[in-house]
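sry for the spam today, last one i promise. struct tokens for design, 258 residues
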């Protein structure tokens, strides 16, 4: 049974400042190739990392609207973008966008749709507000593409199964091509972006994510506090001996609106 997830802006700020996520954001920016004066919608903006970078690229003659369903994320984006007058941030839901048809040159939605029950409705909405010929960029993770070393692989499996049961769409990348095509998006380019960590560093994306995932499994009653602690201590010890290895794939889909 899935449930609603609420991250704190500070945990998102920490996880998404990791160098491998900075690289992923740059891949997203390269794929949409923004120019001065364009209008952009960033759906599920979180704390506004991508919003701010896109605002720099479209300049003061452009416009970036950022929406998120959580008020604290909207406040964090407003704060990050306070000197960028081309940014407007508001609360909103991807399944019910409050913008007219054919309005934006580019729509971005990164790491959001796995939390959404009505994915088809969400993609239809993003297609609706996109100008004909505009670009839609969606980035998603399938956590089951994780390759990692642990001396407790059964605990790893339990932690990942608990995550699958927590979010509505844990396995979205394998379905996205068809979902976007059905919504009228054409010329879809798909790129895999592997996130690799070989050191146990709290600044790594994997270390904060694995803390989050094991904490989630504990909260859901899938593992005990002791199992969670033993599993995390094992990962830290693999770091000490140079054996830590983690890789997960993110998938970037970029297509054209009709
Ligand atoms: C993991 S964060 C990603 C933030 C940002 N897109 C990024 O890549 O840095 C997911 C965000 O999606 C937002 N979100 C989840 N469901 C949403 C929905 N139905 N409509 C709008 N935002 C949503 C959450 O509140 C959260 O801020």
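last one done:
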């Amino acid at each position: 049974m899935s449930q609603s997830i609420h991250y704190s802006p500070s945990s998102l700020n920490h996880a998404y400042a990791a160098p491998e996520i900075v690289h992923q954001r740059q891949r997203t920016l390269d794929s949409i190739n923004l120019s001065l004066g364009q209008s952009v919608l960033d759906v599920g903006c979180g704390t506004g990392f991508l919003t701010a970078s896109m605002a720099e690229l479209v300049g003061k003659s452009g416009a970036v609207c950022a929406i998120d369903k959580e008020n604290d994320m909207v406040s964090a984006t407003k704060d990050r973008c306070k000197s960028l007058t081309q940014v407007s941030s508001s609360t909103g839901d991807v399944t019910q966008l409050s913008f007219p048809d054919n309005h934006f040159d580019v729509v971005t939605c990164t790491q959001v749709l796995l939390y959404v029950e009505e994915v088809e409705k969400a993609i239809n909405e993003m297609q609706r507000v996109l100008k004909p010929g505009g670009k839609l960029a969606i980035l998603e993770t399938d956590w089951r593409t994780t390759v990692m070393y642990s001396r407790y692989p059964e605990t790893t499996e339990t932690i990942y199964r608990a995550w699958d049961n927590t979010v509505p769409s844990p396995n979205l990348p394998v379905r996205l091509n068809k979902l976007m095509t059905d919504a009228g998006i054409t010329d879809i380019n798909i790129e895999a972006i592997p996130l690799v960590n070989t050191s146990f560093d709290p600044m790594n994306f994997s270390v904060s994510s694995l803390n989050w995932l094991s904490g989630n499994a504990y909260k859901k009653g899938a593992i005990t506090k002791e199992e969670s602690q033993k599993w995390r201590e094992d990962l830290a010890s693999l770091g000490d001996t140079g054996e830590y290895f983690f890789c997960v794939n993110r998938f970037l889909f970029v297509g054209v609106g009709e």
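The radius of gyration is 19 Å. ok im logging off now
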